[in-house]
Amino acid sequence: MRDIKALIKDLVAANRILGNEGICDALGHISVRNPDNPDTYFLSRSRSPELVEEGDILEFNLDNSPVTPTDTPIYIERPIHGMVYQARPDVMSVIHNHCEELLPFGITKTPMRPAVHTARRIGVCVPVWDIRDNFGDTDLLVTTNDQGADMCACMGDAKAVLMRGHGCTVTGKSIQDAVHSAIGMKKNARAIFTGLELGEVTYLTEGEVNAASPGQTNLRGHDRAWEYLCRRAGVA
The domain spanning residue 31 has which CATH number? Predict the structure, then answer.
């Protein structure tokens, strides 16, 4: 129980961080798989991320129905989360956001490739999913499990997927991992935009993306970036 309480605290902190760092505004959401029951996940009720509190967190089945029926307004794009968890047993946290810096990469032929070292975590290239391919003209929101599953099929085993004209979905092996990846994608997009103003961008090679980071073994579980982000967002 103490571990779940700590997990919920981290989930609340992640919501605050995503709002504070400009990854999410009034919209967007982050969830975490229940480590005690992989067939459920935790997600806030329908609320702006920067305002989420511990009492807002609800538990959902992987079909995206609430474990405990509720009249509380809940996010309509829950299928993004549940279908990722169904398709990817390795994923422990899912973020959906509409980060403005990423939107151009979903509506143009310019790929989202890592150009700076903090974006190595996103992989060689982020795929782009177009809901129109299999569902025709929609409001671009992922509101059915079939749509969520189709998005997951496009994502495959990638770290993230861009959603044409909408935003992106980012996965992580933990809440912290997902948050760091979402922030890394935003910083990478900014670097590409600025770089293109000066000239041709040099992207990381596949070898650079996959190179081991021996210094990570000396961290002994301390995540100074997470501590920094929490402090910036005003959470302990």
Answer: 3.40.225.10
